[in-house]
From TrEMBL:
Coiled coil: none
Organism of provenance: Verminephrobacter aporrectodeae subsp. tuberculatae
InterPro entries: DMSO/NO3_reduct_chaperone (IPR020945), TorD-like_sf (IPR036411), TorD/DmsD_chaperones (IPR050289)
UniProt-listed Gene3D superfamilies: TorD-like
Keyword annotations from UniProtKB, A to Z: Chaperone
Entries under SUPFAM superfamilies matching the protein: TorD-like
Protein name: Molecular chaperone
Length: 213
């Protein structure tokens, strides 16, 4: 898995992208925003992104608009400082972005070992240049992006997406969003948590429909 990279994309806004490509783009955007403080180019694109949804009542419209509005309301420096306060620093951060913490209460525990086994079976591995362990939410979103948009038909299937999501993301992403939305220093990342929660709810519903098909 490489360093995440993505371009801001309002949910379902581009006629050039089908539904699966749009999902991959949104996972890529989440990966980049959670991996590091967003750079000037990404924030500029996010601030200029349209906020309208493709259909009236789209459940992603409001949280997407809140995320764009938060980017517009804060400076690049303020957002970078917020990222550092929440997730950086020496020692224990204010908030963890690792699945093992939410699933077991500790870092580098059994959930991470299980994840590494699943990634290995899919032929995926963390790049040596990336210091974060594979259960970092950015790494998991990047893995989902690959499972949706990758070119290996033996690996990149809807069933693989569902199994990976329900095992490694769904069980803990909501508690992460709860913690972010409750933190007094979270402003841009509070808005990101709202959008993350809404997007993951859409993904959950989609995979439940797949199970029932």
């Amino acid at each position: 898995m490489s360093t995440p990279s993505a371009c801001p994309l309002p949910p379902g806004s581009s006629a050039a992208l089908d539904e699966e490509a749009a999902r991959a783009e949104l996972y890529g955007l989440l990966a980049q925003l959670y991996y590091a403080a967003p750079g000037a180019a990404l924030l500029s694109a996010l601030r200029g992104a349209p906020t309208g949804a493709p259909q009236a009542g789209d459940c992603l419209q409001e949280p997407w608009q809140q995320l764009v509005d938060a980017a517009r309301a804060l400076s690049d420096a303020a957002i970078a400082q917020e990222f550092a306060h929440l997730f950086g620093g020496v020692g224990k951060p204010a908030l963890y972005l690792y699945g093992s913490h939410y699933l077991s209460g500790f870092l580098n525990e059994k959930p991470l070992a299980r994840l590494r086994g699943d990634l290995d079976r899919m032929g995926l591995a963390r790049a040596e240049a990336i210091p974060e362990t594979e259960d970092h939410i950015a790494c998991l979103c990047e893995a989902m992006r690959y499972l949706i948009a990758g070119d290996d038909p033996a690996v990149c299937t809807l069933g693989a997406q569902r199994n990976f999501f329900t095992t490694h993301l769904q069980p803990w992403v909501r508690p992460l969003c709860d913690a972010l939305q409750a933190h007094p220093l979270a402003h841009f990342y509070c808005a990101l948590a709202r959008f993350t929660r809404a997007f993951m709810a859409v993904e959950t519903q989609g995979f439940e429909m797949f199970d029932g098909a």
